[in-house]
């Protein structure tokens, strides 16, 4: 093995340690008592193993309700992005209509706008529509996004136009072409968009914190943040146990769609 390869493997191993290390520490520390978590210097391996943090998580919080809220919001947002972004991407990539280039430039421009710029206008709009503290208010602003439209449009450019023209010659309409011909070929891009959207929605904190005003609409990140902070201090054991539980669904989704996700990242943008 050459010296260059050894150096490359060493750099990659260091990068892996930097990325994975905090997650391993989070998992191990969730089994530590509160005093050991606060110990200085910190310990890596728990001296005293305990499930008390997880018992507190399920006893102090209405965990099934908060988990269900997060799941409902994340699934609806993900499904909306998969549908609407693929439809918009198909129109921008394969349909010829006046203003298509201008519309695509508008999508690119929206990618450059920070989310906090539109946060207040979105909240005012949702409040005026009477959707505050509702699932609709939590879901509606995120049913489609410029990144998803851009991702799907770039992937759809790689699908041969001859395939679509052949379907049109056979008498298929645009809706049937989209569902029966185009969409089955978009599995890698759909998997990529689904994972990224689900991850962003599942971990979203600020929007649910502002829109949800009662306990029955809190998502899991909001509930963890509110109930793990006491009057005088934070309960880090509860936070770490909650963080582990929050990460598990994302890992399951990623592992289930990993093969398509890697293909989507590798092929999106190729033409």
UniProtKB/TrEMBL annotation:
<feature type="transmembrane region" description="Helical">
    <location>
        <begin position="234"/>
        <end position="257"/>
    </location>
</feature>
<keyword id="KW-0472">Membrane</keyword>
<protein>
    <submittedName>
        <fullName>Sugar ABC transporter permease</fullName>
    </submittedName>
</protein>
<feature type="transmembrane region" description="Helical">
    <location>
        <begin position="7"/>
        <end position="28"/>
    </location>
</feature>
<keyword id="KW-0812">Transmembrane</keyword>
<dbReference type="InterPro" id="IPR035906">
    <property type="entry name" value="MetI-like_sf"/>
</dbReference>
<dbReference type="Pfam" id="PF00528">
    <property type="entry name" value="BPD_transp_1"/>
</dbReference>
<feature type="transmembrane region" description="Helical">
    <location>
        <begin position="177"/>
        <end position="200"/>
    </location>
</feature>
<keyword id="KW-1003">Cell membrane</keyword>
<feature type="transmembrane region" description="Helical">
    <location>
        <begin position="66"/>
        <end position="90"/>
    </location>
</feature>
<comment type="similarity">
    <text>Belongs to the binding-protein-dependent transport system permease family.</text>
</comment>
<feature type="domain" description="ABC transmembrane type-1">
    <location>
        <begin position="67"/>
        <end position="257"/>
    </location>
</feature>
<feature type="transmembrane region" description="Helical">
    <location>
        <begin position="102"/>
        <end position="123"/>
    </location>
</feature>
<feature type="transmembrane region" description="Helical">
    <location>
        <begin position="135"/>
        <end position="156"/>
    </location>
</feature>
<dbReference type="InterPro" id="IPR000515">
    <property type="entry name" value="MetI-like"/>
</dbReference>
<keyword id="KW-0813">Transport</keyword>
<keyword id="KW-1133">Transmembrane helix</keyword>
